[in-house]
Design goal:
Layout (H helix, E strand, L loop, with lengths): L3 H8 L8 H7 L3 E5 L3 H13 L3 E6 L2 H11 L3 E5 L8 H12 L2 E6 L4 H8 L5 E4 L4 H18 L1
Parallel strand pairs: 1-2, 1-3, 3-4, 4-5
Helix pairs in contact: 3-7, 4-5
């Protein structure tokens, strides 16, 4: 007969072996792309997957972005400010932040003070100025994920 205390002793990790930080590194961050330009969205998805990130979905409207966020609970959203449809990326980012806690890196070709002020309510983790390169995207995501880990 196998004694349960012995079994748990054999398989239980030593407390110093596993730290919460180590577990975060083992999990690929879930990233939601909110972009209505198919070519840009495909470039973003390819660059992130190639670097080991997990893209959970691509939304081309604010409504679809919120639905995907509710369903998949992203760690981060890359959010284009101007989207097709009645709502913009800022509205989507605010709703996603309020409902899931996920923050955004905002992407835009033109950032004025009023728009930046609206974005501030979603506590952005960074900015990408269009046009941006795949390496700029990856760098921004790495920096954002480091910020999230430090805050946690």
């Amino acid at each position: 007969m196998f004694h349960s205390a012995v079994a748990s002793d054999l398989f239980a990790p030593e407390p110093e072996e596993i730290q919460p930080f180590d577990l975060r590194l083992a999990v690929k961050p879930r990233i939601l792309l909110i972009e209505d330009n198919d070519l840009i969205a495909e470039m973003m998805e390819s660059a992130l997957i190639e670097e080991g990130f997990r893209v959970i979905g691509i939304a081309d409207t604010a409504d679809r972005a919120v639905k995907l966020a509710r369903l998949y609970r992203p760690d981060l959203a890359i959010t284009d400010i101007r989207l097709s449809g009645p709502d913009d990326g800022i509205q989507a980012a605010l709703q996603i932040f309020n409902e899931t806690g996920a923050r955004s890196i905002f992407a835009t070709g033109n950032l004025d003070k009023v728009t930046a002020g609206r974005c501030a309510h979603a506590m952005p983790l960074g900015w990408l100025t269009k046009p941006f390169t795949p390496s700029q995207l990856v760098d921004a995501v790495r920096q954002a994920m480091t910020s999230v880990e430090v805050e946690a």
